[in-house]
Write a structure and sequence with these properties.
The protein is α+β, with helices and mostly antiparallel strands. The chain has 9 helices and 11 strands. Bound molecules: protoporphyrin IX containing FE (HEM).
Length: 382
């Protein structure tokens, strides 16, 4: 087997074109790149793991149901996912600035192995840029593409993390050397390498601090970059999908409304029947996949009480169905989430408004907001 590094490259690549770009900023160095890369790698890692946890909410394995504790679990992980994702945008730009010049070294391709490595770098840059930009568009609820966001975002995250791990493995010697090298001040004066890192770090910190208010209420006044102010909405809770958009206004207000519960036996309840059931109050957050979250008071009958009335138990798999049709018209729960779930008739001590799910909305701990199904009309117990 010939050593691919020994294969002579074409004559065309032996002479550097006269106008080939040349970069000579002394601010760029392996020491700077490795330090930026370290933070970027941690941010991408956190984003990947929290993204997987969020994905698990949609399709948990039946033998490992989503736990109910801590009740703020999804609030924390999805808040982290969106904040680290947003912080990755300036971090990635800074990282690319620090290695930009290396893409113009001559010759651009030195061997088969080198061209493969370049190819994997192209995949990493394209996939991570795509992932961050489409993720940002998603939290702005702007979908200028024909494909399903969730599926593409999920599979692309594996491409990003796979190509990132490969990149780290290839660059490991340079990373080690870079991290071991001190950031010596530049003798020519002006901005130093340390200054670049401090300025970059401050920029990333500002981006994170002005976004985190969508999760931490105390920081809401400075949440200038947060696409959603979590207190903006009826009764201080935001609405992602209105009753009008879901086309349920008439059905939800109809005097014919019934809640049916199907298990070993069957129940059919009018609104008055539901309102007459024993109710509890619980304090739980609505935690949106788009990163914002807010805690609220919810009151209503316990879902498990109705489940047991039709012969089910805590270990039943219960699906709740909405008056609306569409992607989020139903969700399922079991185990400790089912035990603590409430069919909310009241939000913050007021009859729950139409846009929050009147006449009845599911609320359970440690759960994605899209799975807190609104406008409930049917419950299936298996
Ligand atoms: C999405 C994330 C990343 C992207 C898009 C990216 C992109 C790049 C690019 C385009 C290069 C130049 C490659 C070449 O010369 O052919 C490079 C080099 C490098 N990257 Fe990354 N990178 C990322 C993450 C990381 C991470 C997490 C580390 C870990 C510390 C890292 C450390 C390095 C190092 C040490 C070099 C070589 C710099 C030198 O030799 O001066 N990168 N990166």
């Amino acid at each position: 087997m010939p050593d691919t590094d020994q294969v002579p490259f074409p004559a065309l690549l032996q002479t550097k074109p006269p106008r080939w770009p040349h970069f000579d900023s002394a601010l760029r160095s392996t020491a700077v790149t490795a330090r930026i890369g370290r933070v970027l790698g941690i941010a991408f890692g956190v984003c990947f793991v929290t993204g997987l946890l969020s994905h698990y909410q949609y399709a948990p394995w039946h033998w490992l149901p989503i736990p109910a504790a801590p009740y703020w679990g999804y609030r924390l992980t999805q808040g982290l996912h969106v904040i680290t994702g947003i912080a990755c945008i300036p971090l990635l730009l800074l990282k690319l600035w620090s290695v930009f010049h290396r893409l113009f070294v001559w010759p651009p391709v030195r061997s088969v192995a080198h061209s493969l490595e370049r190819g994997s770098i192209a995949v990493l840059v394209a996939a991570s840029g795509f992932q961050l930009i489409t993720g940002l568009f998603n939290i702005l609820q702007f979908y200028p593409w024909p494909w399903g966001f969730i599926r593409v975002h999920y599979w692309m995250s594996w491409v990003v993390i796979g190509s990132l791990l490969l990149h780290i493995a290839v660059q490991l010697p340079a990373i080690r050397e870079g991290l071991a090298t001190k950031l010596v001040p530049d003798s020519r004066g002006g901005l130093s390498r340390r200054g670049v890192l401090i300025a970059g770090g401050a920029g990333v910190a500002v981006v994170a601090a002005t976004t985190v208010g969508q999760v931490v209420p105390a920081l809401q006044p400075i949440a200038l970059l947060a696409p959603r102010q979590p207190r903006n909405g009826p009764l201080g809770v935001p609405v992602n999908r209105t009753a009008q958009a879901a086309n349920v206004v008439q059905k939800a207000r109809s005097s014919q409304y019934r809640l049916t519960v199907n298990g070993a036996s069957m129940l059919s309840l009018s609104l008055a029947d539901v309102e007459a059931l024993p109710a509890i109050t619980t304090i739980l957050p609505i935690s949106c996949v788009e990163g914002w979250s807010i805690q609220a008071h919810w009151r209503g009958p316990k879902l498990l009480d109705l489940v047991t009335k039709v012969g089910g138990s805590r270990s039943s798999l219960v699906s709740v169905h909405s008056l609306e049709n569409g992607a989020y018209s139903q969700s399922s729960l079991t185990g400790s989430q089912l035990e603590q779930a409430v069919l909310a008739t009241h939000l913050n001590d007021v009859r729950i408004p139409l846009d929050h799910g009147y006449p009845l909305r599911l609320i359970a701990p440690d759960r994605a907001g899209v799975l807190q199904t609104k406008w409930l009309t049917r419950i299936e117990v298996r």
